[in-house]
Structures are given as C-alpha cells and as structure tokens.
C-alpha cells in the first residue's frame, strides 16, 4: 500500500465526522420561518357623524381619508368629525345601519 493511500484511509473517518458535525450545526442554527405574513385587512366601515347619524356610505379607511381629507391622527388640534363601525358591529334596519355599541371601531379627525 502506498503512503498516499494510507493517508486517505486515515482521513476518511475524521472528514466524515467533521462533515456530519457541520451539517448538524447548520440545521440547528437555521430555523425556517413558516409563519405567513398576515394579509392587509380591507374592512369597509359604516361612517357616521359625531352625533351618530349615518353619512350614507360604507368605505375603507384609505378611501374615506381620500374622500374627506380626514385622518386617524390624534395630534392636536383635532376635531372629531367621523366615526366608523365595522359591519359586524352594525345592525341594518330598513336599509339604514345603526351601531350596536357606543364605541366606534375607527375615528377620523380634522386638524384645523
């Protein structure tokens, strides 16, 4: 047996063990993220004025902000202009929605 063949036999087991340890270390170091990103919710709220009179429309927050120029920011000065309830928190009687709760799901303000 040649010297090179003898060295190859001696290094096969340690190299295999080294590769095995690296594989186990890599598997434990990398954890896959199987959580999916939550989808952006597009809820069409029923919009009411401050006295809870229905404004005759149902819109998403983005569409309502674009339509009215109001926003959710609570920075002062602010004036309460619109209150929004999600469809699950509204009862519709004769085509007119009315809130089931006294607390709105969303509030939009103007900032004079």
| Spatial order of the strands forming the largest sheet | 2-1-3-6
Q: SSE order in H/E notation? A: HEEHEEEE
Radius of gyration: 32 Å
Overall 3D form: rod-shaped
| Amount of beta strand | 25-35%
How many beta-strand segments?
6
Structure in words:
The strands form 2 sheets. A 4-stranded antiparallel β-sheet has the order 2-1-3-6, with helices on one face. It has a two-stranded antiparallel sheet with strand order 4-5. The mean pLDDT is 84. It contains 2 helices and 6 strands; from the N terminus they run H-E-E-H-E-E-E-E. It is α+β, with helices and mostly antiparallel strands. Helices cover 31% and strands 27% of the residues. It is rod-shaped and about 95 Å long. The N and C termini lie far apart (94 Å).
Task: Throw out a few tags for this protein.
112 residues; alpha+beta; four-stranded antiparallel sheet; 6 strands
Produce a short descriptive summary:
This protein is of the alpha+beta class and 112 residues long.
Topology:
Layout: H1 3-29, E1 45-48, E2 54-59, H2 61-68, E3 79-85, E4 90-93, E5 96-99, E6 106-110
Antiparallel strand pairs: 1-2, 1-3, 3-6, 4-5
């Amino acid at each position: 047996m040649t010297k090179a063949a003898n060295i190859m036999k001696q290094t096969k087991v340690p190299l295999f063990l080294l590769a095995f340890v690296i594989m186990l270390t890599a598997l434990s170091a990398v954890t896959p993220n199987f959580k999916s990103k939550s989808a952006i919710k597009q809820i069409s709220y029923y919009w009411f004025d401050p006295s809870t009179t229905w404004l005759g429309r149902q819109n998403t927050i983005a569409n309502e902000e674009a339509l009215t120029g109001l926003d959710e920011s609570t920075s002062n000065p602010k004036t309460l202009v619109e209150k929004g309830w999600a469809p699950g928190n509204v009862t519709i009687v004769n085509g007119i929605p009315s809130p089931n709760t006294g607390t709105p799901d969303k509030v939009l303000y103007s900032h004079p």
